Predict the structure.
Amino acid sequence: MSIREPLHQPPNPDDLRRSPPASPDCAQVRGWLRDFVDADLEPSHSRELEQHVHSCRTCAIELARTEHERMRLLRVCSAAVPPLPPLPDDFAARLVERLVLDETSMVREADVAAAVARAAEARTASPAAPRLSVARLSPVVLLLGAFAMFCVLGLAVRLADDASGPEGLSRLVVVSADGTYHGGRQLGRGDGLGENEALRVAQGGLARVEWHDASSRPQPAATLRLRGNSAVCLSDGSPSLTGQIDLSTNRPVTIPMADGSMVEFGVGEYSVSVATPPELLGDAGTDPLASLPQELLIEVEVHGGDQARIVRPAVGATLVAAGFIGVWQGSGDTKVVAVGGGIAAAPRDEVNRDESPVVEPVDSSRLVGRVLDNVGSPCMGADVMLTMSVNGGPVHASRVVLADGGFQIEGPSGFTVDWSMVLALPPASRPELGVLAPDVYAVRHNGDVSAFRAPFTLRRSLPVHGTVRDEAGTARQGVLVVPCIVDEAFGLVLPMLAERRLTDVHGSFRIDRLPAFLPSQQSLRLVLFHPELAATSVVIPERGGLLAGVELPAIAMRMLRWVRMYGLPANATVDMLEEVPGLPKGAGLVRRRVATDGAGVVPLTQVGWQPLWALYGGAATAIVRQMVFDSLAGTPRMRPAPGTVTPFASVFQPMQKVPAASLELANNYRHEHFGGAAGGGSFGVTVRTESGQPVADAQVFALGVETARGRRVPQFLGLTDDDGVLRTGEVAGDVVVITPRRNMFLVRAGELEASTEIVAPETGRVILQPHQQPVGSVMEVLEMQPIDWYLPGPAPTLSRCVGEANGWEVGDLPPGRYMVRIGATERIVDVPSGGFATIGG
Amino acid sequence: MLQIQAGDLGAFEQLVRRYQTMVHALAMSILRRPEDAEEATQDAFLKLFRARGSFDHQRALEPWLLRIAGNACRDRLRRRRVAELPGVRGGEEGQVAMAQLSDARHPGAVREHLGSSVRDHLEQLSPRVREPLELKYLRGYTNQQIAAALDISVSNVKVQIARGKDLLASRLQEVRE
């Protein structure tokens, strides 16, 4: 049969019609795109494709479209297909039972009798005698192995009268063994061990052993994975463990530890570490239990599944949940520490765990977490910055992530937090990763240890490439480009000053490490400044999103204009403050200093095109007056608007100077100020979905607090718990709730009661119809302004990038009515809850 | 597998535990009913055990198992169809797929579906198109595994997957418009 393979997934014919390949190379690459995004393309073709899309913008867009298609397909499949119903736990055991019943006729009675005799002989043999090795037996005897299972199922009582037959004995069966011994004899696959027989794994060895207990329930009860310098011995039917052992249980089992304590495991994945003096190992003829010291250091780590219960005669019982480790030594208390806090053993995939750090039980409380990279590996060297509210005051901490991906903050005993603001920066050696933008994360507790619910992931961030030109189309060198996170909901700006760049001789710049994704109602902007040009800003897509790979159009900066000023104080130096376009009100300014003559006139000076304010007086008592044009004829004339003396702080936020530029930007984020009353009090907010489900981890802010300079800033109160509830004390002003599904609500100050219930509808989407999509543009910015904005201050502008790669679609929009601007076109759109509105439909 | 060929039921039970989810996912994709899927999963492993003597050790176990499992599911599907729709014969999936493909080019023909959900769109795809899509993007099967399970070539798997994407894309587009 002749088969012409490999064939690649053919491209969508509609896509080919819409965007025909420009060259044979393009045609070939188009035929590979679907296999490429599915990771099914041969490596040589993948390299060719990657090189091609670097130089071919059309194919790069088609690649982005294909990636979008795949992501949409994943969404559709997962939304449309119900989850796989679980098979019964005993599916395999029942299947074997059915097989035994069906195959009974295959078992000859003579073989059965022989099997019983041989099994009895094996049981009465001396402990040093070789064990039964399944792999080395003849097929006839193996068939009798099947019969032994027949016995276990209770179907062969009539054939074997021996009540203490092999089915009633606990045993260890070696599945795989490397460097594994019993009594000086090397063990191999299929070997079995009985009561009081020990299996030892030499340094560097590895063994996998099944434990079949004496019950008639499905076997094995558990599978043990023993690492180097470990041992297991069956004692009273249960395995006694020494060294480093991973345990995978199929049903609840109880295993006694050598110090007299008991551990009750559920169904799950566990590790047990029992510290043993090295002299014990290699002493093959000795019963390992006899040599074990009473002063053992024991750890029980729960990787996943049911919790483990550690029962110690003099201490009591301790529960250990998934992600935590129970630790005790001698007669000391049982401590519970979280995985990743510098205490956990090395990752499970490592063959040798002998180099894992030694656990030192501590008396202090701690908060621990993990940071992973885009492929889920520990992100060693990342910087994590945390701010927590402790006793009503903020506590700041910064940690470097260790080799196992963990970090921890220690505090005095009893120190606990329910949440923390976290900002994480990738190590300098990983420029391909983006920073984790500041956000608040919930913390769970287990004894004195608190841990974040999930590891933080630093995702891959595509760099931003751009070019800057002036109005004449000339590439401009020396333009300062400052990336900023803009919080549209609260009107805040967080500049990433460490990532600011100057354009090169070609007017080009490149910025790495920007956030791959941002929290709700926030966007990425580049602020551009040059002394000879009007400052501007442009919105750019999140660096991990579908549009991240789309090339930015050239950024145009307008020239400054000449103006004459008058009506200013005579013989004075006055600062002209010009707002930066695109940023929230008062979050950015360019400061230009002018000198007036004896008549309070500035004969000629250059300014930009944005609202302008004249600053008088010192910084503490500064007042500003807005400058207005009174004539545009000839050289335009400006003067202070009459009666507009205003405190600086009522127009501009507190500013931070950008080094080496007369540009100043606000520097704040929504979790900068904490409310001190969270955690209990007279007021409560309960957030539910429309179907009545509680919404956990919704962020709650108060807006009534004024700073010393008269500005109202958001004050973070806390996160809702698993019941969707946050209790808080007296709250001044309105309350804003932001759900994890990116919706926002306002509770007016007067409406907040002992139990205020909020129903959270779903967010909605807006889709741009084909005839509204800009001709020749691969990406466009939708400026969306909510009508009936309910927070104090002017309605924010939500800037969202749309393009082919994301299906010309904007998501995560709180439902409501918006004024939407696309280029010069404006229209009103009603965004429904849980649905979408079309523009141009 | 050597142990299983020698009749070791313990080894067989291990094999069942290892592959039961994979086979069950295949059975659900083909049969769509949990009770049928569980029985087909049992059938598949029983068939494997009974056919263990014919296993060629030079070849990989997994494709062999998937082929047996796919056959078990198709057998059960055939029996179900005979029981439920005595007039229906096998081999019509291709015609359905072609009809749906042409539907997608003529929006009027599918207007009655415009209000239906995404789930309906997936369900309305012919099994020949839907099964590879589901197995690949929901159950994590590789193209080779799908080819073995559905008894088609890898090339055919890719063609069906691409066709399914085209059909879904055009239907979802119609809903938006």
In short: The radius of gyration of chain B is 18 Å. Residues 61-84 of chain B form the longest helix (24 residues). Residues 85-116 of chain B have pLDDT under 50 and may be disordered.
